[in-house]
């Protein structure tokens, strides 16, 4: 999943991603029996591989690849950096033209589509890659087959101004839905906030805002055969989400590209839900000492507990690779806990391997440690090839719910009908 830019961040307000219930992806995806790839030969890697990676990761990966080359003197890794907004089309064109790289960073929500196109090589059974957060591991799986590794992860937490919360009469973060709304209201009435919490008012990506609430109620997005949007659990979450807008606690006219950082720093919007990248963003705007004026907390619990969206990116090897063994050894290298910790130091991308969180840089940071706790229960969307198409319908209906007060039950019925019409793509 693409990491949003600071200016385009979605303000979410709920429990959540990612990447699946108890961490596993909610569907098996493309059909067929689970597979494992042919074993990779032992010994050092050699040969030249081409690797694609997106955004800032693509720019920084050559420095990490140099470490792999030092450990494998016969190997060479050529990294091509690709802009995020061009990546999906570049991949699909390359699949059609049979001009893919050997390995690549891939958005988690693309895995079902690419596996369905028979482009991905199943993970070899003899590679030593384990210890991932369960939800992150689930993003690599389609129909029970793993097609790579979760390279880095992100999840969403509740950001809140501790100083303003104290003015509002709260000395700790809310842990329940009721507590979240109570605190958001008090931020307005007692701490002078314009809006108690920043939430996305529908539109592209708003499903990531609502699903944490739904997962917290025990919702599933699939029953293994098709999509399941029209359920009591989903309805409970959407009605709760709508109430923030109906009651004036969240801004139903919030722009598609919200001004999160300045509004948070000024206190106009003292709570929002987002990922770890926002820590540096708000601290940069807030200036010296602002880090002591806010904190983060796990998504407040629904009746089924606290969950969140698990995002990030996976790393895969393509079936067309002529240097398959070296490509997979590079992927194995990326999954090493020490390498994951090194990559965090280079990029601030959070490790997908749980043991990497024991390093001083992560373990000593109180805010980051909360992200690690949330990742233990974070979930992912289904790995059906049609997910991106289907979820666009949910985004559209959520906008009607938040901005015009449309009936949540009717909205979910519409989404279900469209999902049934589109199908899973299996």
UniProtKB/TrEMBL annotation:
Region (Disordered): 402-426
Biased composition (Polar residues): 414-426
Keywords per UniProt: Signal, Transport
Database matches in InterPro entries: SBP (IPR006059)
Protein name in the entry: Sugar ABC transporter substrate-binding protein
Matches recorded under SUPFAM superfamilies: Periplasmic binding protein-like II
Leader peptide range in chain numbering: 1-25
Family to which the UniProt record says this protein belongs: Belongs to the bacterial solute-binding protein 1 family.
Gene Ontology BP, a term: maltose transport
Organism from which the protein derives: Phycicoccus avicenniae
Gene3D superfamilies named among the record's database cross-references: Periplasmic binding protein-like II
GO cellular component terms given for this protein: ATP-binding cassette (ABC) transporter complex, substrate-binding subunit-containing
UniProt xrefs under PANTHER family: MALTOSE-BINDING PERIPLASMIC PROTEIN (PTHR30061), MALTOSE_MALTODEXTRIN-BINDING PERIPLASMIC PROTEIN (PTHR30061:SF50)
Any GO MF annotation of the entry: maltose binding
């Amino acid at each position: 999943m693409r990491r949003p830019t600071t200016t385009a961040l979605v303000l979410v307000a709920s429990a959540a991603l990612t990447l699946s219930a108890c961490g596993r992806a909610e569907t098996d995806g493309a059909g067929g029996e689970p597979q494992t790839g042919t074993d990779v030969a032992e010994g050092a890697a050699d040969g030249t591989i081409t690797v694609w990676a997106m955004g800032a990761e693509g720019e920084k990966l050559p420095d990490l690849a140099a470490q792999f080359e030092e450990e494998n003197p016969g190997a060479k890794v050529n990294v091509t950096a690709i802009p995020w907004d061009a990546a999906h089309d570049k991949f699909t064109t390359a699949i059609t033209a049979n001009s893919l790289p050997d390995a690549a960073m891939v958005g988690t929500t693309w895995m079902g589509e690419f596996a369905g196109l028979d482009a991905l090589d199943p993970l070899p059974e003899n590679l030593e890659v384990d210890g991932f957060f369960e939800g992150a591991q689930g993003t690599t799986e389609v129909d029970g087959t793993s097609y790579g590794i979760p390279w880095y992860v992100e999840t969403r937490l509740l950001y809140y101004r501790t100083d303003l919360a104290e003015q509002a009469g709260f000395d700790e973060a809310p842990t329940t839905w009721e507590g979240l709304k109570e605190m958001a209201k008090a931020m307005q009435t007692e701490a002078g906030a314009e809006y108690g919490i920043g939430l996305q008012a529908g539109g592209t990506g708003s499903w990531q805002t609502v699903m944490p609430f739904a997962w917290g109620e025990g919702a599933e997005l699939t029953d293994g055969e098709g999509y399941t949007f029209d359920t009591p659990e989903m309805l409970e979450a959407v009605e709760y989400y709508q109430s923030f807008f109906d009651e004036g606690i969240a801004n139903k006219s919030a722009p598609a590209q919200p001004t999160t950082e300045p509004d948070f720093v000024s206190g106009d919007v003292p709570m929002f839900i987002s990922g770890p990248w926002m820590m540096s963003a708000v601290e940069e705007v807030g200036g010296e000492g602002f880090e002591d004026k806010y904190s983060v907390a796990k998504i407040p619990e629904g009746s089924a507990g606290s969950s969140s969206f698990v995002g990030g990116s996976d790393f895969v090897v393509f079936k067309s690779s002529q240097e398959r063994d070296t490509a997979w050894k590079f992927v194995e290298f990326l999954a090493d806990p020490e390498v994951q910790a090194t990559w965090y130091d280079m990029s601030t991308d959070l490790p997908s391997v749980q043991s990497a969180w024991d390093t001083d840089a992560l373990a000593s940071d109180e805010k980051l440690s909360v992200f690690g706790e949330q990742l233990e229960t974070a979930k992912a969307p289904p790995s059906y090839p049609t997910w991106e198409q289907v979820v666009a319908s949910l985004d559209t209906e959520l906008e009607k719910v938040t901005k015009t007060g449309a009936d949540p039950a009717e909205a979910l019925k519409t989404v279900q009908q469209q999902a049934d019409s589109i199908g899973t793509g299996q």
